[in-house]
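2024-03-11 09:14:02 INFO worker-7 job=invfold-0412 stage=load source=structure_tokens
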């Protein structure tokens, strides 16, 4: 009985020692998104987005992150109305490292991450040559040029990987499911495109491919 208690105490002490050896703060990453830049170059300015991020490493488990960028659109629809906007956006959130160290394996700086973001953008947008049809009385009204202001909030569910390709140099990808919080009321003139979110639907998908450096 005495021997069992001693062994149990040793296991508790060993477990405590292993957690104490992990520092609370382990530096931070600065990274830029290559996917948004490449897609913007190929879109012929219909839509464009550029973004970067800074992310801290807390106990190799928690990775709080701040993402910011600039995005916009200059789009002519099939119904011949024009939509233009451009504005900064920001996201704040945290990732969790799901990769567990295997027993007796070598330490790795590669990460398998899942997390959440809260995004926001306050932007002005302009609509030209819009024809509004009256479904009750019939007929239509033309809006030649009108400017509007909007603030949109959204959630993002994130999953991705980060791989060290050289000492402190990382590349990775992130898939995102975006869910709009600030929805438009029925009958309102709403923006076609939301900077940082994308085309204005209840939810859409996004992909980032990043390169960064850990300090």
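2024-03-11 09:14:09 INFO worker-7 stage=emit residues=215
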């Amino acid at each position: 009985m005495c021997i069992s208690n001693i062994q149990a105490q040793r296991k508790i002490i060993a477990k405590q020692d292993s957690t104490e050896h992990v520092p609370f703060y382990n530096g931070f990453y600065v990274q830029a998104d290559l996917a948004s830049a490449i897609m913007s170059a190929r879109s012929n300015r219909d839509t464009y987005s550029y973004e970067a991020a800074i992310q801290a490493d807390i106990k190799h488990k928690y990775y709080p992150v701040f993402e910011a960028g600039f995005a916009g659109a200059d789009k002519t629809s099939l119904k011949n109305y024009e939509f233009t906007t451009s504005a900064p956006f920001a996201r704040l959130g945290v990732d969790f490292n799901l990769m567990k160290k295997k027993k007796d394996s070598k330490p790795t700086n590669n990460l398998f991450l899942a997390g959440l973001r809260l995004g926001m953008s306050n932007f002005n947008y302009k609509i030209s040559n819009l024809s509004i049809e009256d479904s009750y009385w019939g007929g239509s009204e033309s809006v030649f040029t009108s400017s509007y202001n909007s603030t949109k909030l959204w959630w993002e569910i994130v999953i991705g990987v980060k791989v060290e390709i050289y000492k402190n140099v990382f590349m990775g990808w992130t898939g995102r499911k975006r869910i709009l919080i600030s929805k438009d009321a029925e009958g309102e003139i709403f923006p076609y495109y939301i900077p940082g979110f994308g085309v204005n639907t209840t939810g859409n998908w996004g992909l980032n491919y990043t390169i960064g450096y850990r300090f």
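2024-03-11 09:14:09 INFO worker-7 stage=report msg="Helices lie at 2-20, 34-42."
2024-03-11 09:14:10 INFO worker-7 job finished
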